[in-house]
C-alpha cells in the first residue's frame, strides 16, 4: 500500500520536559502538564508557519522551521509524499529555557506527519523517538515528550535510542522557576562549557545518585535531596548560568531538592515552594510554574 497524505489537517499537543534532573545527565527526563499546540494543513502553495506566543518574530516561518523540518523527516521516513504546509504554532514553552522546546518542536512535527498519513502506525512511537533524537543529539527530552511521565533514555552502541519508563509518584509536586527572558541560553552554548572527561570519583558519585533518584521518584521523597546531587554538568555550567546556580544553591541550602532543568537556565524543584520564596523570586522577575507531571506524552488532538 502506498503511503498518502490522506488527512486534510492534523493537530498535536506536546508537553514541556525537563532533562538531567541532577545526576541523570543526557538520560533522565520528565514531562509536564504545560504544552505547545501545533496544527498543519497540506497546501499546494509554499510552506507558511504562523506563530502565537513564544518565538513570534524569531523562529523561521518557512521550510527551515524546526517543526516543518521534523514533519518532512517523518514523511520521508515512511515514504510519504511531500507538499507545502500551513502550520500554526501556539507556543508556551520558552526557547533556550531548559524546558525542552526544541525536542517538543521536533516531536510535534513528527506527530503531525503521523496525523496526516493513511497508515499512522508506520510512524510509531519508537520511530518518532529515533528521528527526534536525531534532531536533538540526545534522547533525554524527546523520551518524555513522546511517552510522558518520567523516563530513562539512552543510546545503544549502534546509535539507536532506547527508553524505559521510570516509576514516578504522579502527585509529586514540581516547580519550574523560569528566569527573566534575557537569560535564555541555547543548549548548544551550554554544552560547549562541559569538559570531555571527568574525574572517576565524580562519575562514581553520579552513578549512585542516579540510582537514588529513581528510588526517590518512585515514592521515597526522603531521598530526593541525595538523589538530585550532581557532579557531571551543573557546576561546569556555573559561568553561563550564574543566577540560576545561585538560586539553586540557595534553595538547596533551605532543604529544597532543586536542580538545573536541562541545560538551564530554568531551575526545577521537586517540591512546592513556600509562598514567601515564590514572591521573592517573582519580585526579581522570575516566573514560577507549578504544572504537575504529564503522564500521556504527545497526543494528536
Ligand atoms: N516551537 C518551535 N518552533 C520552531 N523552532 C523552535 C521551537 N522550539 C524551539 N525551537 C528551536 O530550538 C531552539 C531552542 O532549543 P535549545 O537551545 O535546545 O533550547 P531548549 O530546548 O532548552 O528550549 C530555538 O532557538 C529554536 O531555534
Ligand atoms: N542533557 C541535555 C539537556 C538539554 O535540555 P534543554 O531543555 O536545555 O534542551 C543537556 O544538559 O545539555
UniProtKB/TrEMBL annotation:
Pathway(s) of this molecule: Amino-acid biosynthesis; L-threonine biosynthesis; L-threonine from L-aspartate: step 4/5
Subcellular location: Cytoplasm
GHMP kinase N-terminal domain location: 65-149
The keyword Nucleotide-binding appears for this protein: yes
Main subcellular location of this protein, as a coarse class: cytoplasm
Keywords from the UniProt entry: Amino-acid biosynthesis, ATP-binding, Cytoplasm, Kinase, Nucleotide-binding, Threonine biosynthesis, Transferase
Top-level division of the source organism's lineage: Bacteria
Pfam family, any one: GHMP_kinases_C
GO molecular function annotations of the record: ATP binding; homoserine kinase activity
Enzyme Commission number: 2.7.1.39
InterPro entries: GHMP_kinase_C_dom, GHMP_kinase_C_sf, GHMP_kinase_N_dom, GHMP_knse_ATP-bd_CS, Homoserine_kinase, Ribosomal_Su5_D2-typ_SF, Ribsml_uS5_D2-typ_fold_subgr
GO cellular component terms, A-Z: cytoplasm
Substrates-to-products reaction catalysed: L-homoserine + ATP = O-phospho-L-homoserine + ADP + H(+)
Residues engaged in binding ATP: 94-104
Ranges of residues in domain GHMP kinase C-terminal: 225-275
Any one GO BP annotation for this protein: threonine biosynthetic process
Family: Belongs to the GHMP kinase family. Homoserine kinase subfamily.
Entry function: Catalyzes the ATP-dependent phosphorylation of L-homoserine to L-homoserine phosphate.
PANTHER family xref list: HOMOSERINE KINASE, HOMOSERINE/4-DIPHOSPHOCYTIDYL-2-C-METHYL-D-ERYTHRITOL KINASE
Protein name in the entry: Homoserine kinase
Organism per entry: Actinomyces respiraculi
Amino acid at each position: 500500500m502506498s503511503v498518502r497524505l490522506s488527512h486534510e489537517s492534523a493537530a498535536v499537543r506536546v508537553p514541556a520536559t525537563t532533562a538531567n534532573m541532577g545526576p541523570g545527565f543526557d538520560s533522565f527526563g520528565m514531562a509536564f502538564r504545560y504544552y505547545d499546540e501545533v496544527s498543519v494543513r497540506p497546501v499546494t502553495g509554499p510552506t507558511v508557519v504562523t506563530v502565537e506566543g513564544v518565538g513570534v518574530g524569531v523562529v523561521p516561518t518557512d521550510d527551515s522551521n524546526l517543526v516543518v523540518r521534523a514533519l518532512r523527516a517523518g514523511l520521508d521516513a515512511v515514504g510519504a509524499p511531500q507538499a507545502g504546509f500551513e502550520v500554526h504554532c501556539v507556543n508556551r514553552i520558552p526557547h533556550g529555557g531548559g524546558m525542552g522546546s526544541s525536542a517538543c518542536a521536533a516531536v510535534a512535527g513528527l506527530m503531525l506527519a503521523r496525523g496526516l498519513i493513511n497508515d499512522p502506525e508506520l510512524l510509531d512511537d519508537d520511530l518518532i523517538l529515533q528521528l527526534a533524537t536525531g534532531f536533538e543529539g540526545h534522547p533525554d527530552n524527546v523520551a518524555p515528550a513522546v511517552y510522558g511521565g518520567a523516563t530513562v533514555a539512552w543510546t545503544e552502541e549502534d546509535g539507536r535510542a532506547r527508553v524505559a519508563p521510570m516509576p514516578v509518584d504522579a502527585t509529586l509536586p514540581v516547580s519550574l522557576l523560569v528566569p527573566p527572558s534575557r537569560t535564555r541560553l541555547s543548549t548548544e552554548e551550554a554544552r560547549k562549557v562541559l569538559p570531555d572527561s571527568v574525574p572517576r570519583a565524580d562519575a562514581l558519585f553520579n552513578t549512585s545518585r542516579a540510582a537514588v533518584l529513581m528510588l526517590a521518584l518512585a515514592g521515597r521523597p526522603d531521598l530526593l535531596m541525595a538523589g538530585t546531587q550532581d557532579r557531571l554538568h551543573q557546576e561546569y555550567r556555573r559561568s553561563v548560568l550564574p543566577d540560576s546556580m545561585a538560586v539553586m544553591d540557595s534553595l538547596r541550602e533551605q532543604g529544597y531538592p532543586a536542580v538545573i532543568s536541562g541545560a538551564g537556565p530554568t531551575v526545577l524543584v521537586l517540591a512546592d515552594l513556600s509562598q514567601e520564596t515564590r514572591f521573592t523570586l517573582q519580585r526579581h522577575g522570575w516566573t514560577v510554574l507549578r504544572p504537575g507531571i504529564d503522564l500521556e506524552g504527545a497526543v494528536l488532538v
